[in-house]
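Why does residue order matter? Because the sequence determines the fold. Keep that principle in mind as you read this record.
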Amino acid sequence: MQKFIFILFTSLILLGCDNIEDGLVDPNDGEFSVVDIQAPKSLEYVGADTKLTTSITFSDSKAIIVAWVQVSAQDGSFDITYRKEMSKANENQYSTSIGMTSEMPSTKYTIDYHYQTETQSDKKIASHDFTYDNMQNNIAPIISNPLFYYLDDEPTLLDTLENDKEFILSIKVTDGNGLSDIDSVYTDFYSPNNPSAIRVILFDDGKVAEHGDKIAGDGIYSLKNIFSGASGDRKFEFWARDRRGMLSNMITHNLVVK
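Structure:
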C-alpha cells in the first residue's frame, strides 16, 4: 500500500453583496442607521484618472467621529486600501474616491464601510461588491524550472526520491500581467496504480514550515511533501492558471520512488 501525503488549504473568501439590504452588517446603531450607499457594480480602467467613488448616507451623523472604507479582493489576494477615510459631503453623507490602476487585478472586490463614535472605536456597518476590469490584454502565465529536492539540500532536479524522506517540489511562474494575476499553481500527480490525476496546490507564501516555500511573492511556488510506502515511476504535470482562466504551458517531470 502506498501513501502520498498532501497538505491542502481552504481559502477564506470574504462575502459581500450588491445592494444595501444585503450589505448591511448592523443597519441600526440605535442613534442612527444607513439610508443609502452609492458605489458601482462594475468598474473599468480608462486611464490614469480612473477612480472608485463611493458614498454612504446615515439617518443622522452627529455621533460619528470618522468614517472610512477598506477595499479588498474577495479571494483575499489583494488590498486596494486597508483604511481610506471618507470626507463629509453633506450633513449626513460621507464619500471618498480611490485611484485605480492597470496593475490592480481584474477580479471581484468588496468595499467594507466602517465608522467610529465615542462609544465605538471601529465598527463595520455595511459592505458592497463590485467587479473591476483593468482592461489589459490578458497574457497567459509561463512556468519554468521545476525542482525536486530534499528538505535540507540545495534546490536541484532529482529524478529519484526515497520513501519517508521529506522533499520539496517547486516551479517558477511569471505572468505579463503581474504575479497578482495568478489564480492558482498546481501539479497533477499520476502513479501506476492510480491512472486518474491527483491535483495538489503549490504556494508562494513564504511559509517554510507548512509548505516549504522560502520567499513570499518571488514567483517560486512550492510544496513540502513525503512519499510513504511507495515504489516505482511517478509523473508530475505542472500548470499555472490566471484569474481569467488562461492556462500556462505544461511541464512534466518523471521520477522514480524507491
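The chain has two domains: 20-133, 138-257.
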